[in-house]
Protein: histidine kinase
Amino acid sequence: MWAVTAGAGQPALLVEWVESGGPHVKKPERQGFGSKLIQRGLAQQLGGEIKLDFVPTGIRCVITFPISTMASDQNDMDEARGRYAS
Structure:
């Protein structure tokens, strides 16, 4: 699910990923590479916030970041594209 929120500040994009129907889930005892990548790398790059919930029925990840962090015009998109490998 995704939505644009107005909130108290600037408009933000909220993305919610929910996994269910799989095996029983428990919170990991340590933070692995994937969790670090999501929570630190993605949050820092987008200037947003990541919340991971590990409940017995599945995993829920909510990603929220300001829309202003996304490229606003073609020049920004070309510049951003040059920073990433394809």
The chain has two helices and four strands. The two ends are 27 Å apart (CA to CA). The beta strands are 2-5, 12-20, 49-55, 58-66. The longest strand covers residues 12-20.
